[in-house]
Structure formats: structure tokens, C-alpha cells
TrEMBL record:
Belongs to the universal stress protein A family. Residues 1-142 form the UspA domain. The lineage of its organism: Bacteria, Pseudomonadati, Pseudomonadota, Betaproteobacteria, Burkholderiales. SUPFAM superfamilies: Adenine nucleotide alpha hydrolases-like (SSF52402). It comes from Paenalcaligenes hominis. This is Universal stress protein. PANTHER family: STRESS RESPONSE PROTEIN NHAX, UNIVERSAL STRESS PROTEIN UP12. Pfam families: Usp.
Length: 142
């Protein structure tokens, strides 16, 4: 394993997924990078672009994503593992699939439930979409 991807929304299951990824990265003989990504859902409305420029929206997405990622920096830094944090905008399954390809990720570790106010039946809807979209090993963390 060289690149582990951990999508995060700041939820407790996502934090536990990060802790597992760090533990697994430490067990690797070769250098392993933990990539932590926060995916921002795009604001879908034609009216938004009438009131806000693309730069303002990009800044908004970055600020929202970095606020979540900044809470994880102490954990990542203290771990001693090589890591990178990222903010991406789009639908969760498309972003994760593209990210896996671009960063050559060979393992995905994610929480089963996020912060969405709409509960899934057994598994969060984001996790379900991602499982069906990717072709690398996925570890789900409760």
C-alpha cells in the first residue's frame, strides 16, 4: 500500500477511519501517504451565479473544507505518517473515483455514516455510492 484515501466530513466515523488509516500506514514497510479529502457538494442553482462570482464560490468551498481538515491536522502531524489534505468540489462518488485515479490510491478507508441529516437504511448514502463507484479495496469504519 502506498496511498490510502480517507474521505472526511468531520464525523466521528470519519475520524475513526482516519485513525485506522494512520495505523495501517505505520505498519507498511514502504512509505505510505494518507490522503485526507473533504468533498464539498456544489451549490446547484442558476441564481447563485447571478449573485456570486466563481471566485467567491471557490473561496467558500475552500474555507468550508479547510475548516474541517484543520481539525485533523494535529492528529495527522502527531502520527508522523506522510499525509496530504485536499478539498474537492463535486458529487462524492465522482470526486472520490477521480481522486483515486489521479493520486494512485490503492486503499480507501471511510466511515459508514456521515453528518448528513438524512439517515440511510443500513449504510450512509455516500458510502453506498462510493462502494459501487470504485475498484480498489474499501474498508468501512463504524
Amino acid at each position: 500500500m502506498r496511498n490510502i484515501l480517507v474521505p472526511t466530513d468531520g464525523s466521528k466515523p470519519a475520524l475513526r477511519a482516519l485513525e485506522l488509516a494512520i495505523s495501517m500506514a505505520k505498519q507498511q514497510i514502504e512509505t505510505c501517504t494518507v490522503h485526507v479529502v473533504n468533498v464539498q457538494s456544489p451549490i446547484i442553482s442558476n441564481n447563485v451565479s447571478r449573485f456570486f462570482s466563481a471566485d467567491v464560490l471557490t473561496s467558500y468551498y475552500d474555507d468550508e473544507g479547510k475548516a474541517i481538515l484543520d481539525t485533523l491536522i494535529p492528529t495527522l502531524s502527531a502520527s508522523g505518517v506522510q499525509h496530504q489534505t485536499h478539498v474537492a468540489v463535486g458529487t462524492i462518488d465522482d470526486v472520490i473515483k477521480r481522486f483515486i485515479t489521479e493520486h494512485k490510491c490503492d486503499h480507501l478507508i471511510m466511515g459508514t455514516r456521515g453528518l448528513s441529516p438524512v439517515p440511510g437504511l443500513l449504510l450512509g448514502s455516500a458510502a453506498t455510492k462510493i462502494i459501487h463507484a470504485v475498484d480498489i479495496p474499501v474498508t468501512l469504519v463504524k
